Amino acid sequence: MARSTPTHIAAVVVAGWIALEFALRRGLVAGAAAVGIEPLVADYLVLAIGLPLIAAALSRYALERGATRKSWGWDRTPRALGLGVLAAVVGMGLMAGASQVDAALFGLGEAGGAIGEGLAAAFEDRPALAILFLVGNGIVAPIAEEQVWRGIVQTNLVDERGAAVGIAVTAILFALKHVIVDLSVIRLTTLLTLGFLFGVVRHRWGTASSAVTHVLLNLVSSASIVAIAFL
Question: Is residue 1 part of a domain?
Fold first, then answer.
């Protein structure tokens, strides 16, 4: 059997993640709703439990094809973690600008406001749901995504295609993944901007650093929605 190339491994991992997340967040959540389980509860459980399981399965696949855990870049040094925090501050400014572009192109402001108000109402009625949202969307999902998208996919593409191509292709695929799973393009500019930011941070300082950046940005975004319900 021919040895898998880094690009081939990256392609399989990308396809696997999209297929599995789509199946869980669309198929499983719809099935849960059909039997009387609250869709938001099912979706947030997928974020908190399902995405780490997907990341574990795809990481195992990569390991079986010659990857090493060291290559994934999870060196949690104080410098790497601190630079991740600094990058998150920069990311907040970039998100503000990108969201304005999305608002002009896709009406993100109106759609995002309606979604945020709906979630805030749900959280006000069920505070435990807000906690699950913060843990799943704010912490667990970003770490799982960084392991797969920057730790595996970007690492393989950079190794074979170079830094510019590896970072750019991963950022584009990461944005398209969200478009497919969310069935919406309203955040496309924001997702592309963040994809490039995470990619550069990972390339310069490691996946632990980009994970800190991703977690902090998701936490701030998630916490702002939760705050509307309780403040």
Answer: no
Confirm if 121 and 226 have CB atoms less than 8 A apart. Answer: no
Instruction: Please state the domain count of the chain.
Output: 1
Give Dmax over CA atoms of the chain in angstroms. 60
Integer Cα distance of 20 and 128 in angstroms: 26
Task: List the domain range (segments joined by +) for residue 183.
Answer: 6-230
Model pLDDT for residues 63-96, shown as the tens digit of each residue: 999 999 999 999 999 999 999 999 999 999 999 9
Amino acid letter, residue 131: I
Q: Is 16 part of a structural domain of the chain?
A: yes
Contacts of 47 (CB under 8 A, 6+ apart): 136, 137, 140, 141
**Per-residue pLDDT at 208 exceeds 90:** yes
Q: Over 90: is that where the pLDDT of 109 sits?
A: no
User: DSSP labels for 87-143?
Assistant: HHHHHHHHHHHHHHHHHHHH-HHHHHHHHHHHHHHHHHH-HHHHHHHHHIIIIIHHH
